[in-house]
């Protein structure tokens, strides 16, 4: 029964050849290197005492140097168990958890057609390689040898050819091999004109075969020598064999080289890949004339967990780097990353290798930057952030990027790195990243009238002290905003500057800010971070908070938020003042420093007293106390004055 395209390739990647073969042999551990997927044993197919049977787990193939038996996992099961092909496939599919597809009446016909198209491609590659050696290919040979500095051995390694500047050269050659016109057109190598006549698609071009993951040619790329040609590079159209967005140039050799420890390099074009490989950077691939696609990125990550994007140092290369960042952000996960190397002086890898050699290329690769740094550079380079509005605009853009990262752990680490970069840019004297400015209790529509709510005064928050209290207040603030998303915009600035403790709180903060306009915010967070949300809402002090118990009253929630933010800032403001004061001390504190500390402590004491004392305790002095507290905050008594 014919199998769908790609089924066997996926099956081979899901099973480990050494585990299949290991049931029949005893590995020679002195000769084997398990870490590199290199296994040796006496051959199971003939009688021997020495370990001449070799299994390469990374390639998925075995070979016996004694009897010359060779194959993959399917072949081994078939030969060792004396089974038919489909029986062997079914056994391996069960082990891999794959379902054998139902019989498709048209599958055999499609498989036969693909086989015929593969034969057309093979014949075309042979024809073009031969043309490169003829007199008609003299200019192409000169270009490859002098301009590209490629040897004849390199031409052969890459199956490079030459398409004569003739409309019927390949068509006539294929016809002489008995290939039908419809197959020529279906292969993408021959095109049909409006009048029905056929002509060669590639003319006057150096030919680079494009191969699949098994090294078989599936399409062609052509580089024009005529500077007036409509397109410098031309790829074949998509066919039954060739899907441009799911193909990488040099995929199979790069995968093999990466398996041997070579760093995977993603370049922009054929010649870059060829130049890199010829210079010793053999794990090099490229997309095919377009921006890299999601499928290609996933294919790249299957080859290497942290490939290096080697991009031209011109405007187009920088733009390509930014497109890759936007594409990759939602796909990031633990263990899968990108590093980006921008080449100097507008050069591409081929230019750099010719001008300065392999050591210069290696130096560029060694300086490749993680993606987060390129993201930060894009949003900050050449811009001035000399006002709160500009800094707020930057914060909004960065929050948008963070919200696109679906992996919670990656998102949290990105947020930490961006906080560090912001601190380096603005400095503590100008800007405290993710820390709230002085919140103004007693002013504006968020100030709770009449002081603390009775339910808040009796909660666990009133009994907690120190860092524990701060963490509890953070939890109530986050839970309130999750359950009352309509308040997010009103408290957005305070929330984004809040200095949170713990990865879960930071992750929830980012999800809240990203979901400001989502009426079903709680459901979205429950779907993306169920453990963090459950841990937050199940805490006793959160469960008894008024805005958590009453999710319908947004005004009550607003009052509680204002109160919790004010108290949290009052405590942290006092703590920061003490820490700064300790740094200022050189010997005994002077009177000015003592006064600053006393005023900060008094501000905190009055703020907390307003939160835990019944209104009757304050009597008519509540208004005066509020004014005094506000004046202390307005004058920022904890800020060191120049003396």
UniProtKB/TrEMBL annotation:
InterPro entries: DNA_primase_core_N_sf (IPR037068), DNA_primase_DnaB-bd (IPR019475), DNA_primase_DnaG (IPR006295), DNA_primase_Znf_CHC2 (IPR036977), DnaG_bac (IPR030846), DNAG_N (IPR013264), DnaG_primase (IPR050219), TOPRIM_DnaG_bac (IPR034151). Its cofactor is Zn(2+). A zinc finger (CHC2-type) spans 43-67. The keyword Endoplasmic reticulum does not apply. Residues 262-344 form the Toprim domain. Transmembrane segments: none annotated. Binds 1 zinc ion per monomer. CDD domains: TOPRIM_DnaG_primases. It catalyses: ssDNA + n NTP = ssDNA/pppN(pN)n-1 hybrid + (n-1) diphosphate. It is an enzyme of class 2 (transferase). Its EC number is 2.7.7.101. Keywords: DNA replication, DNA-binding, DNA-directed RNA polymerase, Magnesium, Metal-binding, Nucleotidyltransferase, Primosome, Transcription, Transferase, Zinc, Zinc-finger. RNA polymerase that catalyzes the synthesis of short RNA molecules used as primers for DNA polymerase during DNA replication. Monomer. Interacts with DnaB. Belongs to the DnaG primase family. Contains an N-terminal zinc-binding domain, a central core domain that contains the primase activity, and a C-terminal DnaB-binding domain. This is DNA primase. It comes from Rhodobacter calidifons.
């Amino acid at each position: 029964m014919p199998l769908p395209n790609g089924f066997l390739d996926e099956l081979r990647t899901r099973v480990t050849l050494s585990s299949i073969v290991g049931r029949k042999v005893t590995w020679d551990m002195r000769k084997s290197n398990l870490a590199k997927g290199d296994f040796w044993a006496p051959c199971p197919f003939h009688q021997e005492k020495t370990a001449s049977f070799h299994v390469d787990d990374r390639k998925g193939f075995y070979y016996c140097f004694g009897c010359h038996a060779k194959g993959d996992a399917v072949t081994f099961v078939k030969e060792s168990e004396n089974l038919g092909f489909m029986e062997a496939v079914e056994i391996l599919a069960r082990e891999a958890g794959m379902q054998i597809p139902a019989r498709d009446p048209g599958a055999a016909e499609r498989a036969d057609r693909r086989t015929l198209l593969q034969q057309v491609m093979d014949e075309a590659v042979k024809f073009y390689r031969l043309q490169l050696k003829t007199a008609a290919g003299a200019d192409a040979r000169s270009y490859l040898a002098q301009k590209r500095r490629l040897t004849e051995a390199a031409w052969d390694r890459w199956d490079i050819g030459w398409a004569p500047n003739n409309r019927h050269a390949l068509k006539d050659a294929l016809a002489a091999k008995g290939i039908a016109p419809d197959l020529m057109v279906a292969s993408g190598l021959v095109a049909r004109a409006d009048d029905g006549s056929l002509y060669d698609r590639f003319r006057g071009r150096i030919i680079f075969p494009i191969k699949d993951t098994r090294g078989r040619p599936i399409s062609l790329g052509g580089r024009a020598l005529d500077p007036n040609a409509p397109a410098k590079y031309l790829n074949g159209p998509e066919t039954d064999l060739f899907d441009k967005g799911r193909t990488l140039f040099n995929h199979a050799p790069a995968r093999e080289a990466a398996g041997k420890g070579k760093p995977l390099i993603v370049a922009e074009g054929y010649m870059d890949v060829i130049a890199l490989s010829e210079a010793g950077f053999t794990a090099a691939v490229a997309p095919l004339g377009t921006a890299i696609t999601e499928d290609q990125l996933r294919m790249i990550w299957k080859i290497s967990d942290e490939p290096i994007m080697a991009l031209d140092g011109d405007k187009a290369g920088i733009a390509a780097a930014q497109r890759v960042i936007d594409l990759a952000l939602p796909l990031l996960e633990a263990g899968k990353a990108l590093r980006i190397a921008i080449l100097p002086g507008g050069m591409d890898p081929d230019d750099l290798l010719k001008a300065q050699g392999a050591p210069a290329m290696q130096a560029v690769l060694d300086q490749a930057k993680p993606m987060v740094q390129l993201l930060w550079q894009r949003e900050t380079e050449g811009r001035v952030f000399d006002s709160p509005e500009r800094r707020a605009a930057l914060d909004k853009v960065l929050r948008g990027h963070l919200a696109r990262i679906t992996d919670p752990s990656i998102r949290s680490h990105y947020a930490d790195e961006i906080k560090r970069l912001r601190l380096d840019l603005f400095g503590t004297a100008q800007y405290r990243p993710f820390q709230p400015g002085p919140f103004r209790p007693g002013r504006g529509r968020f100030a709770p009238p009449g002081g603390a709510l009775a339910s808040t005064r009796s909660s666990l928050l009133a009994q907690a002290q120190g860092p524990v209290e701060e963490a509890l207040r953070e939890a109530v603030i986050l839970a309130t905003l999750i359950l009352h998303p309509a308040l997010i915009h009103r408290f957005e600035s305070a929330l984004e500057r809040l200095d949170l403790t713990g990865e879960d709180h930071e992750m929830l903060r980012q999800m809240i800010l990203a979901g400001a306009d989502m009426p079903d915010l709680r459901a979205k967070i429950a779907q993306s971070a169920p453990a963090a949300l459950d841990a937050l809402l199940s805490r006793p002090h959160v469960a008894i908070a008024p805005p958590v118990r009453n999710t319908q009253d947004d005004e009550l929630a607003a009052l509680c938020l204002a109160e919790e933010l004010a108290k949290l800032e009052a405590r942290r403001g006092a703590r920061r003042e003490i820490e700064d004061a300790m740094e200022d001390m050189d010997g005994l504190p002077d009177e000015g420093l003592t006064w600053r500390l006393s005023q900060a402590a008094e501000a905190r004491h009055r703020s907390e007293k307003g939160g835990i004392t019944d209104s009757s305790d304050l009597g008519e002095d509540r208004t005066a106390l509020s004014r005094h507290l506000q004046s202390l905050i307005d004058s920022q008594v904890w800020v060191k004055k120049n003396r």
